[in-house]
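Predict structure. Chain length: 204.
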Amino acid sequence: MLLMNQLEKYIKTNLASANIIVNGDRPWDIHINNPQFYPRIFLQGSLGLGESYVEGWWECEQLDQFFYHLLRGQVQEEVAANNITALWQKMVGKLMNFQTLVNSLQLGKHHYDLGNDLFISMLDKTMTYTCGYWQNVQTLEESQLAKLDLICRKLNLQQGMTLLDIGCGWGSFMKYAAENYGVSCVGLTVSQEQMTLGQEVCHQ
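Prediction complete.
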């Protein structure tokens, strides 16, 4: 129980340094639904933060504002070097972090090389494997196209530019950007299946 209390205090203190209050009443404050959130964040860092959100361990009214404060506050960089808890966290992070280059490549290949037929059956025609932008649209495909266009506009893409898409999937964003904004594209993916289908789609 003592360790649990220390972990909770440690996480809350570091979040507070980024102007984020646990169970606060501002849009970017987070609300904890599972007390195991604290040791999980301690052990897994940003990976644990994302996965615990998906699992409903915490919630936030405005996620974009939460991450804005989190990143702007540079929480990890602000942890004191002589803090025993921080040193332990760094050591555990080195031991427990499974997001190595080799593992990332293996996991990516294992997931995305299951076969294109599976993803074709579950995704829309754009083959975009992330959430859509649902403002003023009705269908999944419309939401994906709206999102791709929003990204292009935020990047202020201009004809003649070259776009590098790291983790390009099946090439949907590159295809849209090239066709609608006149840019040249280079895509990177660890999946042979994605590359094969992506090349076919982008050359249609």
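Summary: The first helix runs from residue 2 to 16.
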